[in-house]
Amino acid sequence: SMPRRLNRMSDSSHDHQILSLIDMEGFDPKEITVTVKDGKVKVLAEHSEELTTARGKDYTYKKLTKEISLPPGLSEDKVIWSL
């Protein structure tokens, strides 16, 4: 039955833990760098934009940096991330 199948799916992902959810709105995936090193996950994103308007040029620049410490005992090669 469907409920049993859903329970089995949730049980199989039970040992996965979400460390962080970060709002990356306004950044293109190619502007985002994620590194896992020295027990930390580091997220760096930079976006710059130039718009020509009736008044001239408008420049937009934004930068996001985030550092998340891994729980003790978690191997760096077990960390996965997605956008």
TrEMBL record:
<dbReference type="Pfam" id="PF00011">
    <property type="entry name" value="HSP20"/>
</dbReference>
<dbReference type="GO" id="GO:0030154">
    <property type="term" value="P:cell differentiation"/>
</dbReference>
<dbReference type="InterPro" id="IPR037389">
    <property type="entry name" value="ODFP"/>
</dbReference>
<keyword id="KW-0217">Developmental protein</keyword>
<dbReference type="GO" id="GO:0031514">
    <property type="term" value="C:motile cilium"/>
</dbReference>
<feature type="domain" description="SHSP">
    <location>
        <begin position="1"/>
        <end position="83"/>
    </location>
</feature>
<keyword id="KW-0744">Spermatogenesis</keyword>
<keyword id="KW-0966">Cell projection</keyword>
<keyword id="KW-0282">Flagellum</keyword>
<dbReference type="InterPro" id="IPR002068">
    <property type="entry name" value="A-crystallin/Hsp20_dom"/>
</dbReference>
<protein>
    <recommendedName>
        <fullName>Outer dense fiber protein 1</fullName>
    </recommendedName>
</protein>
<dbReference type="GO" id="GO:0007283">
    <property type="term" value="P:spermatogenesis"/>
</dbReference>
<comment type="similarity">
    <text>Belongs to the small heat shock protein (HSP20) family.</text>
</comment>
<dbReference type="InterPro" id="IPR008978">
    <property type="entry name" value="HSP20-like_chaperone"/>
</dbReference>
<dbReference type="GO" id="GO:0099513">
    <property type="term" value="C:polymeric cytoskeletal fiber"/>
</dbReference>
<comment type="function">
    <text>Component of the outer dense fibers (ODF) of spermatozoa. ODF are filamentous structures located on the outside of the axoneme in the midpiece and principal piece of the mammalian sperm tail and may help to maintain the passive elastic structures and elastic recoil of the sperm tail.</text>
</comment>
<dbReference type="GO" id="GO:0005813">
    <property type="term" value="C:centrosome"/>
</dbReference>
<keyword id="KW-0221">Differentiation</keyword>
<keyword id="KW-0969">Cilium</keyword>
